[in-house]
Each structure stands twice: as structure tokens, then as C-alpha cells.
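User: Some background: our group keeps a shared notebook of sequences we're curious about, and every so often someone picks one and asks for a predicted structure to add to the entry. Today it's my turn. The entry only has the sequence so far, pasted here. Could you supply the structure so I can complete it?
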Amino acid sequence: MGTMAEGPHLAVVGAGPAGLAAALAAAARGVRVTLVDSAAEAGGQFYRQPAAALGARRPQALHHQWRTWERLRDGLTAHVARGRITHLSDHHVWFVEGQSDGFTVHALRGPEQEQSVAVRADAVLLATGGYEKVLPFPGWTLPGVVTAGGAQAMLKGGLVLPGRTAVVAGTGPLLMPVAVGLAAAGAGVAALVESAGARDFAGHARTLAAHPAKLAEGARYAAELARHRVRIKAHHTVVAAHGSNRVEAVTVAALDGDGRVWPGTERRIACDTLAVGHGMLPHTDLAEALGCRLDGPGVAVDDEQRTDVPGVWAAGETTGIGGAVLSLAEGRIAGLSIAARLNSRTPEAGSYEAAVKARTGLREFFAVLDTVYAPPAHWTEQVADDTVVCRCEEVPASAIREAAGELGAGDVRTVKLLTRAGMGWCQGRMCGPAVAGLAGCEFQPSRRPFARPVPLGVLAGTDFDRHHTDSTDSTDSTEEGSS
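Assistant: Of course. Here's the predicted structure to add to the notebook entry:
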């Protein structure tokens, strides 16, 4: 890889809407950018593309806001061609090291993830997105039960249907597009089961009405569901999934005003797929390892998207869940701020006035959705004692209840030490919120030094805190990190 022109250097972690918007804004103002992303193609989960080898004739059919994606994609291609952006795809960042003279981003490369690449930078933007929250229920570990986002990823990235007859369930704004996507691709969608109901929205009419485009989007999805004859069961929940070798049916029930299952309302629906999700949580591992403060579940940022660690910015879902349009606004603000600050200037507020306005309104809108789409208050009552909660370590609900009740564990970490829940491969990402809910304590992401599993050989060969001369180099010095 040829060395880029000299000048300030920014490392962007994550090539979703926020990372792309920031990279393009900074590169257009003379900043050298290295975009480090774990996927084979840019776009993140929102703009996930089918592999070229699949020969999708109309990939845009799987997306709305396709024109926005084309603008981002073409902008990235142009900046890469001019040498302003280096795009390191299939690079999985496991640690960001802060040093007196900047930062080093450490990433594992390629499918084997056995070789680490180091990227030196003057500033870092964390645009690491979010991950799905799924709460357990009897039968949730059966084959055929997938996360709502997982079903969407299969559809967008693999042109694959998870099954023939699906039930989409849980809570949150992701469920409607997932149900529409499955139905449009030819799956039978037997029901959309949403725990929120009309009355949950009633007290928020003014904030919601201030976002006609968002309401129109929801109305379009509702019309599509009606066209495909998908039954919407609002204020309902999945009680259990049934089947021997894979899911064959689900039992759903209505919720009462307190969020408890209403006895006698249970109905069984035949299906071979259950796509389930209970909202999203921000990915904060890298930020926490750097010492960035959190604000609730997300990374705390100021008006310019700066964290409280000098030289580190954050944008998109890592600062709080709010969808692609909010991520684009935050990314643009961060990119313009970084370009100015790296050149010892204060950013001109006028340069991102529209983005700030969009950010303010959308944050208000998504704060309302967060309240409306909270999981049912008494969801833990549906979790049987023998229901596996931590799948990695096969820990049942009874062990977690015993740790909290009889052994007095008052936080997720103590429950983990007593039961091994959260010690497995996913490091509690799947089960953390469920363990906290069952133990009756607050869910806090567990701070860990590295954002993903790292081979010991890589750790042994990583020379931390040394001075790097170029924008990228590899820990085993055999080749340069290049895209």
C-alpha cells in the first residue's frame, strides 16, 4: 500500500451510515481517513448488500432510502480512488489503544482472524452500531427461532428466507420492516405479534406528529402488511415456541394493562420460523475500553459528537439507538467536527445546522419509541425454571433465580461468578439483559479489555504502545494492512 499524502489521520471504526457519513465529510475537507469495518462490503446492517456472486437483479427492492445509499457508496468509491480514504473491509477491531501522540486501532483480518493489523491515527470515530436484545421464553433455543435482525440479514445479505411460514414477534420498530420483507420475498407471515398497543402511543401524539415522514413510513409498512394479509396482534406476546427438531408452532397471548399475560387468551399458531426481537442496544465495548463515559446504555457525547476522551468521537447507534437517518446526521456532524479540530479550528456551526436540527428532532422521536416499545413489564413470569437463559454455558433460569434469591447476588457480575451465565463465547451479549431481568438488578454492559475474542498468538505478538510510523502496519510485519 502506498503511503497517503501527509496530514491529519482519522480512523473510523464501522462503515454503516454513521461511519460512512463521517468518513466522507472528513475526507472532503482534507483529512486522511482509514475506514475499518468487519463486513466484506460497506453499508452496515442497514445497507447490507447481497454478495455479487448471488446476482441479485434488484437489490434495491430489499431497501428503502436506496438513493441515499448510492450517494454514500459513490462518494466512498471516489475518495478511495483519490487516495483520501483507505477502506479496510473484513477487519474486526478488537482494541483501540490510546497513546500520548494519538491512537492505534488493532484489528483481526480476514475469515481466520489470526493476523492482527494496526492502524495509527490522530483521532478515532467509533461508529460501531448496535446489537439486538432478545429476551428468553420457553422454546426460544429451538432451531427455526431467529432474531428479527438475523432474519433481515439473511434476506438482505443472502437472499435467503429463514422458513416458509413465519411469525414475527417481540417489540420495536424493526418488527414491521422485517415482517414486510419476509412477506414480500414470498414467505407466509402468519402474524406480527407486538407487545406495545395503541394506548402506549396515546400520550406522545405531539412528538410523533412532529415527524410526518416517520409516521408515513410506518403507515406504508402497515399498508404492505394489510396487502399481504398479515395479522397484527398488538398488545400480545409469545408465551412459548413448540417443536421437537425445530419450531412447529408458537403460543401467543394478549397482555393485560399491567403487562401480564391474560389467562385464557392463549392461541397456538403453526409456523416453521419465529423471528423475535425486543429492541436494540448500543455496542460500547471499544468506547468503554478507552475510558469513555456512558450515558444510559450509549456512549455519552457532546454537541459535536465528542466523547469525554480527547481525540475520540462517537456517532450512530453506539450513542443511542435511533435508526439510519439519525446515524447519518450524527456521522456528518462528527466528520465536520473532526476535520476542523484536527486542523486546530472550531467547526463552523452553520456548516451542519440541518444535521443538528435533524439530530435534535430524531433523538426526541426515538426517546418516545424507547418508552413505547419497552418489553412487557412482567416478561420474567413467562420464563420457566428449566428455560435455558445463557445458551453458551447452558445456564437455566432456575440457577439465576437461585443466585439472586438464595445466594444474594445483587448484580450481573456476581450472578456470572456464581452461575457462569455470560462467561461464554458471546460474553453476555445475548443473555445480559435477560440475566439482569431475572436477577432483578440493573443491566450494565460488562467492561472488558477487548471487544472480541483474540488468539493468544496475536496478543503475544502485539507490541502495545510502540510508535507506528505509517497509517497501517501488521503485527507480524510480513505485509502491510491494505484493503
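Suggested note for the entry: Residues 329 and 355 are 5 Å apart (CA to CA). The radius of gyration is 23 Å.
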